[in-house]
């Protein structure tokens, strides 16, 4: 029996239900929004100040290739969070009858509650057909999908022109709505619950969902001042414009309502891509990254407050801490500003796990899904994984640096018919049906995805093999898009 198995055995073996409750580990889940995998100092980005996330990365294990599976909608967070809470893969999550799942007690917090956990939620939910009050014991300050944005927050900044928007001015509301920054309110709520829960022996599951660093990227001025704009580095894969932005759904998209005079859908800019002017400029990207880093550093400070409160309760040694985000984000990479794409910066968030039996300071590079967190916590809690849960436990990685992913390929999608992706080993294929274009990257030698090999004659067979693997995954995922009809030469 290895160290991890011994720890779990000690935590779970008990003679009565009451004793079992006392020995089950606590689970503290911290969920960011729109945070790219490369925005933590300890994980390789010396430009960003994240001392508390750095601390977690040193104390635990980081999964460097954790993917969101994608989305059926431009609000990628809805799909990611629905997958996390239900354990369903993307298209099954889209079609899930969420009220029925809640009634049958199949949601993540309910599965933990039913093995003895007190469950708590604060912050962003964004799973509209499942009510937080139906699935959690306690709910504090539930937030919508994003704070309100204003017209001044779009298509900015333009070099040489006054900037009408400020990340630290409360007049723009957003995170400042209510008088106190939402990230600070969440930390207040979480520390209050931790202090209260310390008085009880019951194990807890905390679902703490920051809206940060989603736009509007607002933070106190001292955090903005940490990042002088002229010192911000441009991404190595910066582009002024992405060649297939229209066909991939990242430029002009149909509005939700038809134009009154024509009956045809009115075209609007895809919202996220509207955050900086087209074409992208080094100046506009540097300012956007300055504000992105600032709100991450502000969130990091609030996470530090939560970790300090956990330490004060004396429950740190019996608590598993999980930090991740619902997906990543482009902020100038490939000329993009959102998460509605299949590139690494947008598909991959950070994922760090800390707790009993987890080796400190370790990195696991095997490709996994971020929603593997859900069955991982079920295993840690001694709860049974429902048959309908697609995702797989990460527990084998805790002590074994050579553990293999239970997913032999990673699947990605965006919208019904706009983008698809497959990763097998270090090879990645991106498919744009509306442009009839495929792109292929060797992530082992080209992690920033700058060298498209799809048209290289030497890789013709590999492109075809990846395409066939993608079609197989589509069947597994109940993905109805007929890719073969768009690419007959690859079938």
Characterize the structure shown.
It is a single chain. The chain has helices at 3-12, 17-23, 51-59, 76-86, 90-95, 98-103, 108-113, 132-135, 182-197, 221-224, 282-313, 344-347, 373-381, 460-477, 483-486, and strands at 26-32, 61-63, 66-67, 70-71, 118-124, 138-143, 204-209, 252-258, 265-269, 319-325, 351-354, 362-364, 368-369, 410-414, 419-424, 427-432, 437-442. The chain folds into two domains: 3-242 and 283-407, 3-Layer(aba) Sandwich (Alkaline Phosphatase, subunit A), CATH 3.40.720.10; 411-490, Arylsulfatase, C-terminal domain (2-Layer Sandwich), CATH 3.30.1120.10. The radius of gyration is 22 Å and the shape is globular. Strands 6-5-7-1-10-11-2-12 form an eight-stranded mixed beta sheet, sandwiched between helices. It has a five-stranded mixed beta sheet with strand order 4-14-15-16-17. The chain has 491 residues and is α/β, with parallel strands linked by helices. Helix 9 (182-197) runs parallel beside helix 11 (282-313). The protein is built from 15 helices and 17 strands. Strand 15 and strand 16 form a beta hairpin.
Can you lay out the helices and strands and say which pair or pack?
Elements lengths: L2 H10 L4 H7 L2 E7 L18 H9 L1 E3 L2 E2 L2 E2 L4 H11 L3 H6 L2 H6 L4 H6 L4 E7 L7 H4 L2 E6 L38 H16 L6 E6 L11 H4 L27 E7 L6 E5 L12 H32 L5 E7 L18 H4 L3 E4 L7 E3 L3 E2 L3 H9 L28 E5 L4 E6 L2 E6 L4 E6 L17 H18 L5 H4 L5
Parallel strand pairs: 1-7, 1-10, 2-12, 3-13, 4-14, 5-6, 5-7
Antiparallel strand pairs: 2-11, 8-9, 10-11, 14-15, 15-16, 16-17
